Amino acid sequence: MIPQHMGCLPITVFVRVTLQGHTADVAGLFKNEVRNIPEVLECYVMTGAADYLLRVVASDLKDYERFVRQRIHKIGCINSIYTSFVYGVVKQAHVFPKLGA
Predict the structure, then answer these.
(1) Tens of pLDDT along 71-95?
(2) Tens digit of pLDDT for each residue in 10-41?
(3) CA torsion angle 59 65 71 76 (round to 10)
(4) pTM of the predicted model as reported, rounded to 2 decimal places
(5) Which of 12, 36, 64, 65 has CB atoms 3.0–4.6 Å from 86's, for a disulfide?
């Protein structure tokens, strides 16, 4: 659980997930479960080595370990999880650029 007190800056984690199979049932199970996990801020369907990319927040490393063990592992259709912790931000835009100009 992410602490709600002031001054707590959560850890941002990018999690690449591969599933055990690519059937509609397996993908549907994963997507339905991930939608209900509050620590997952974003979930993208990917091409390449990983099936999904999650942007996750945690209060600390122990909280992230709890997230993996109690939330992600319980989904049951996951083949592998690769974790990258964010330790700095170079650019973070919240407005889309004007395209085609």
Answers:
(1) 999 998 999 999 999 999 999 888 9
(2) 899 999 999 999 899 999 999 999 999 999 99
(3) 160
(4) 0.85
(5) 12
CA 48, CA 65: separation in Å to the nearest integer?
26
- Ordered DSSP codes for the chain: ----STT-PPEEEEEEEEES--SHHHHHHHHHHHHT-TTEEEEEE-SSS-SEEEEEEESSHHHHHHHIIIIIGGG--EEEEEEEE----S----SPPPP--
How far, in whole angstroms, is CA 20 from its chain's centroid? 17
